[in-house]
Fold each of these.
Amino acid sequence: MKKTLLILITIAFVNGINAQSNSSVAVANPNVEGLYATPSICAKIIRLELSKLNKYSVYDAFDMEEVYAQDSSYRNNCLSKSCLIEFGNKLKADYMITGSYDLLANKIVITLKMIDVKNGTIYKSGLREFTNQEKELQRMTEIVMKEMFSVPVNNELVDRLKFDNDIIMKSNVGKVSNSGPRVGVGVMTGSFYEYANRSTQQGGLDIFPAVSMIGYQLEAQYVGTDNFSALAEFILNVNGLEQGKFIPTLSILNGFRFGNAGWEFAFGPGFTLTKTSTGTFVNDVYTTNNEWDDIWSSQWDPNSSTYNEHMQAPGYTDVVDQMEETLDDRADVKGAFMFVMAFGRTFRAGALNIPVNVFYSSRQGGGIAGINVGFNVTKSKSTIGSGL
């Protein structure tokens, strides 16, 4: 008895599926407002996504031409339930589907409804708000259609296309630019510390080994989701103005921003202008101040016409260290590369962003460690296709 009951249930279930798959559906041209897509294109998208579900026999555009030829009003103005029922009866379709595609401010709203022609009722309906990415109309329609028929939807696809009221940071939905001015301070380390403290007569800067930093950061997001963003950052700084020095730097960093708190890590190369010379530190020279000291001697020393003459001058008689290249403010200007690492967080107050970063700029023999702070105001979000 149980086996017989199970067989009957199985047969009924299979017949129900076959009955549904044999049911016919026709798509009337939807209403379209504010988009470049035409009603006929949107109808083709609906037919395509409906056919992919493999649940119904879907009328194509040619199956409907005969009715259109008899009454052209069905082509663009058949949106009400009564009209769809009448249209469906003429087509001899079991169901009719139509809806609307509307651009409202910065979002696209898709509404679909499915009419049971025989019973004269709304069989299924669906509505979704999406971000303004018209090129993704087909995927938007896929989401609405699958939700109407209780078919699993790719959650990542939904997250990328859904409309968010908050500022969003998504690779193909929108982005936030954190570009803006930067100010900070850096402390010199290693050979830079010695270079800052060295007297100008020996090619040093003769300044306090900490410099101000004033600059501007340009930022471009190239990939991201709600909780992760990858950034290209271009930072131009001018250092040391408060001590009468002009030390420009340009850094090109690859940055990663995590979570709603805006934690960020960045690294990349930098470029600056520098002055170096080849020479030595002469150990324990008896100076004019009656003190023993280490003196930097190079071809740029003003006390001799050439480096060789200077090295043979009286007083330079002790052991000379190995020849090396070091910073020398008397030398010619040339370019130099460095490596920059930074870690920080962006604090937010409404539309105001305040990025705070600690950094280390490294070169052979030393570098600069410091902190900088910036600010910018998020005015609007833009699509990836619209440029930076």
Amino acid sequence: MRQLAPYLSLGTQLAASVLVMGGLGWFADDYFGTTPWLLVVGLSLGSTVGLIQFLRAVTALSGRKTEHR
């Protein structure tokens, strides 16, 4: 179970980045009255940042796994 622990948080990190950036876009849309453009931008940025972080984490975890062999 200890070996799986680093992988279990990856989905949460990806979802959190999309939700946070989407939420910021939604609030910015409400404030500036630009519905739905800032929401779309926020979701796009959140998805991109989340995917980059996901790939970095998987690459780092894969590197650790091969070092232990």
Amino acid sequence: MSGLGDLQERLRALLDEARERGVEDELVEAVHRLRSERPASEVASELPGRFGIVGASDGMEALFDRIERVAPAKVSALIRGDTGTGKELVARALHEHGANPTKPLFAVNCAAVASNLLESELFGHTKGSFTGAVQDREGHFVAADGGTVFLDEIGDMPLDMQAKLLRVLQDGEVRPVGSNESRKVDVRVVAASHRDLSVMCGSREFREDLYYRLNVVTLEVPPLREREGDVPLLVAHFCGVLSQELGREVVVSDEALAMLEGYGWPGNVRELENELRRAAVLSAGPIQPADLREEIGSA
């Protein structure tokens, strides 16, 4: 067997043994050994995880199992998790492993689209229906017919839009802005929010009837601070991505990795990725503790 094949076999054996024993340190040790023996781009392709999502902690394994059960069933799903945990990756996994993976997936961040434009974005509009509507436009629900619409940060959707979305979910048809005709659509809706929608229902900030329509199945994405042993895996993954982007090997020293593991990551995986990207661009060689933000070191 070639040297590369030997290393791959050794990694698989280490990961299998760690899972059987339930010892997170074994996974971390496997990553440390792998980092010292192979380029980051090769390490990234061997990391544990499922559905294109890296992770081996108990919380992530529970999430993977739930995705596997929920994906084939074409039901509405609500993804809950803090900002930066990777809720869109979960929505993509539900679509790509669902009943119609070849159909389109359209995503819209409800907090990022102006309230007066959100209806047009989702349901489309006719020419002349408002200033700037120079031609007919299909909304995401029509364009994704047969596929999935992902509504991120749905807790920020205005109440009047919530009522219109509820009607679409109930009737299975959309009416473009400025039109008197409706069109039947067959769309799976996956929604996500970092806010507690059940609490928002109690304060009348979110429609209770819409909440129950969306919350057929709930998937919880754990924050990074609760994903024991996953930081080294994610660091290895992002080093592989950055190595390809920058055209040079990106490596994190053991000392810097220890600091990354000890930080609380309030911004979760997105914050970790951004920190590594910043450090990789500014560092002259392997990322050292001095290349990391001061608050990471102080933690």
Amino acid sequence: MPSEQGFLRASIVATVVVAALGIAFGLLSGSFSIAFDGAYSLIDAGMTMLALLVSNLIVRSGQGDGLPGRLGRRFTMGVWHLEPIVLGLNGTLLIAVAVYALINAAISVINGGHELRFDLAIVYALVTLVVCAAMAFIGARANRGLKSDFVALDVKAWIMSGGITSALLIAFIIGYAVAGTRFDSLSRYVDPVVLALVCLVIIPIPIGTVRRALSDILLIAPTDLQAHVDQVASETVQRHGFVSHRAYVAKVGRAMRVELYFIVPKDFPATAIMEWDRIRDDVGAAVGGESQNRWLVIAFTADERWAD
């Protein structure tokens, strides 16, 4: 099974190849939809490179030596927050490109469409469809074990590209079939119409990724995680005779961030540090998710102001 970084590197190479084919065949065949497919792939390649960079930083920050030099000094609280930023930017760019292409397709239809070399267009669609299907299959299979948001988004992008290419292939075959017949005039509209339909299909797809990324960026507490942490904290309060607790949780990319403050009675008997650490260990085990991507703070105070 490839690593997250390994798959992303392979995806970048494949995406650049597809983008180069799209731009070249788009110019040769006169197809706006193929040129859009190439530009879409090129943007996706750039964002995958950025995702690979962030993935490497996250992995290094979780290792024993952490981030080197200036990066380590600047990002003392980790770099998990970069992941939702990249995911949100990626999804937003893909939506923006699709909206722009949709506008151009509408303008082309209004202006009467344009001529297209369907033979070159069909060759491009067949080659690209094979590449997209292979990368989507490999990525989906690898991500069963990796469970990476970056790989999941990249697989989604390959599926989207494959869907676009499938629609293009069907349209080009239809256009090739009607060219030279009494329906020849309709062939001029094949390219802009299929481009418009493809854009309408793919525009909503990244919206879910953008919404989840915004949720992480804004530190919106996941309801299930909040409920679980509150339950663990409440049981700890009852077990040890504390007054109450305050829980602050968030999911930031692949990281789970939890801060727990337990309010102890002012007359609570003096307790050894090792006993407090034992309570922390019990709470940490009950919260779960222990890994290099968990940020857990557990504090005890008799003054509620330190917890609010």
